[in-house]
Design brief:
With 618 residues, the chain is mainly beta. 8% of the residues lie in helices and 21% in strands.
Length: 618
């Protein structure tokens, strides 16, 4: 039976061969079951009930074909079965599989120049070797390209783009849109850390690099309003933008404006801003705060009811200002542009701040010391320095608010560089030596229209009934010696007495009974250079030329039946402003500090953050 089957096969093949030879002898193309083959085909096979069976072989058998011709077609039966053709040359074959869909039919692709495209969509192109793009689509589809990974592995990748340049050049992926260039969408179902867009630059595997690594870079230009990076969160607990730096001396966020070089602290900080104006804090609410600073690890802060530009809270110093070593530098400068505003208000001892109705440069309030000034051991330092350039002004005003307190109180020597005036009397006040624990002793100074010098003493007359009294060495330079007067008083029984001023201007002679004793008192007006240049009138006209005291004003108007508003002192009297709760009422613990462990905002599982490139390498 086998021998008979072989004879039949040989017979059929021989006849086919004869037919092919006969057709080739008379035409350049061959037809099988077709006497008129198509002129464009070398072989035209016609059948309605059978097809052409391409040679079938395994991958090993395919690779064993010697010098396969370009475009040679076979059917591979294993290792991804399918139709394969040689895209390469006989000496360097490249076997390309004709893809099939799930129904088993072969998709149709056409090769044009250096790219392939599916026959049913010529807008999609796969480039074999091109400097521009590996894959392009240019058409009317709503979604130009869709890449979906159904892999459930934690590191699956929907789209992977890679540029194989070693350093500095190339883009792993580039997207361009009319509204959004690239969009990352995540629809979380769990409680892990999720990222809509994640960027990473890390050369740790290569031993580091010397350049600047930027995880996410955003640039906008030539628009009405350009924003490089915009973060928006609609949840109460969220953050529009947050920056972390894990280094002990790192800076979390750096903002730079005005095209200047960024400046940061060597010890790092949460944020550092550099520009013509380093940072601005603005509150759009009428009663909130522009900028809040918190020190010393506080967990709650206090603010002013009406809001403020800057709020500082600390267990040490709320706000600290330091002017550097430059001349005329200022640690803190406060300005109020209101007509009756106050430049700086300080309130101590947990009291509400009080200001003057007409405003002031500085207002200090306390139940201890409103304003404290300290001059250190440097020569000529001053604790408080007050100056007024107004002709009617006062360098320092002390006012007791009518509660029998002190307008000014000094515990050490008091010096006046010019004339000293008292609207009342000039007194000294001490503990009464006779009853110091229960009483005070007040004495009043002698007053005179002259600036009098008074000297006194005792002297014993000689056997001639004379005594020469010598004045201090400075007397002649200090006093008007020519107009000095001497009062002589007998000690004991009265006797005739008299005196003569010495011609030298620094002595006088007393006359009386021999060997008797007298007491004397000399009075003379000051006549030193200061008095010669400040010889003030005793009666001063109220015409405004002296301390701006004008007619119709009084030092004590009530003593002359006039109202207090005519008092000269009222020109210097300052009324306290009515308390404004929005400016003085402190809202204790008005803001609670919400602390977060920075590690909770970062993935603890490094494997979950592998980039597509890292995944690919694995």
């Amino acid at each position: 039976m086998k021998k008979l089957l072989k004879k039949i096969i040989y017979f059929v093949l021989a006849n086919c061969f004869l037919v092919l030879i006969a057709n080739y002898s008379f035409a350049q193309n061959v037809g099988i079951n077709n006497t008129t083959p198509d002129n464009s085909a070398m072989l035209d096979v016609t059948s309605t009930n059978s097809g052409i069976l391409i040679p079938r072989m395994t991958l090993t058998q395919r690779n064993a074909i010697a010098s396969p011709a370009h475009s040679l077609l076979i059917y591979q039966t294993d290792n991804t079965p399918g139709y394969y053709y040689n895209e390469g040359t006989p000496s360097a074959p490249v076997w390309i599989r004709l893809f099939t869909d799930t129904g088993g039919t072969t998709s149709e692709w056409t090769k044009v120049d250096n790219y392939l495209h599916p026959n049913d969509n010529q807008d999609a192109r796969v480039y074999l070797d091109n400097d521009g793009f590996g894959f392009t689509y240019l058409g009317d589809a709503e979604i130009g390209g869709a890449f979906v990974s159904l892999e459930t592995n934690a590191n699956n990748v929907g789209v992977f783009g890679m540029c194989d340049n070693n350093d500095h050049y190339g883009y792993g992926g580039q997207f361009k849109g009319g509204f959004i260039g690239a969009m990352g969408i995540v629809e979380p179902l769990g409680s892990a850390i999720y990222y809509g867009l994640y960027g990473k630059v890390d050369s740790d595997e290569h031993g580091g690099n010397l350049g600047q690594n930027i995880g996410v870079y955003g640039k906008a230009a030539n628009g009405d309003i350009n924003i490089g990076v915009l973060g928006i969160v609609e949840d109460e607990e969220g953050y529009g933008l947050i920056g972390f730096n894990d280094h002990d001396n790192g800076t979390g966020v750096v903002g730079v404006g005005n095209n200047v070089i960024p400046t940061t602290l060597t010890t790092g900080s949460g944020a550092a801003f550099t520009g013509n104006d380093g940072a601005i804090g603005f509150s759009s609410a009428n009663d909130r705060n522009g900028l809040i600073g918190i020190g010393n690890n506080l967990t709650s802060i206090s603010t002013i009811t009406g809001g403020s530009g800057v709020v500082g809270n600390s267990t040490n110093i709320g706000v600290y200002g330091n002017g550097n070593t430059s001349d005329q530098s200022w640690g803190v400068y406060g300005v109020s542009k209101a007509t009756k505003g106050t430049g700086v208000v300080g309130a101590g001892n947990s009291v509400n701040g009080q200001t003057l109705e007409d405003g002031s440069g500085i207002a200090g309030s306390s139940n201890n010391v409103g304003v404290y000034g300290y001059g250190d051991a440097t020569a000529y330092s001053a604790g408080i320095y007050g100056m007024s350039v107004a002709g009617s002004g006062a360098g320092v005003i002390g006012y007791d608010k009518g509660v029998a307190a002190w307008g000014g109180l000094f515990f050490d020597d008091l010096c006046a560089n010019r004339d000293f005036f008292a609207f009342g009397t000039k007194n000294f006040l001490i503990d009464n030596p006779a009853n110091p624990s229960e009483e005070l002793l007040r004495h009043t100074c002698i007053e005179s229209p002259e600036a009098l010098l008074i000297y006194r003493g005792k002297v014993k007359l000689n056997s001639d009934g004379e005594a020469i009294v010598e004045m201090p060495s400075y007397f002649k330079a200090l006093a008007d010696e020519d107009n000095a007067s001497v009062q002589i008083t007998c000690i004991g029984k009265p006797f005739p007495i008299g005196y003569d001023l010495g011609k030298d201007g620094n002595t006088f002679v007393v006359y009386g009974d021999a060997n008797r004793e007298v007491s004397w008192m000399l009075m003379a007006e000051r006549d030193d250079p200061y008095m010669q240049n400040h010889n003030n009138d005793v009666i001063i006209k109220k015409d405004g030329s002296f301390k701006n005291i004008k007619a119709g004003t009084y030092l004590y108007p009530e003593l002359y039946g006039e109202s207090k508003d005519k008092s000269y002192k009222s020109l210097y009297k300052r009324e306290l402003a009515k308390p404004d709760a929005s400016k003085t009422e402190v809202k204790e613990n008005s803001k609670q500090i919400q602390k977060h462990d920075s590690k909770s905002l970062k993935p603890t599982d490094k494997a979950k953050l592998k980039t597509p490139f890292e995944t690919k390498k694995k």
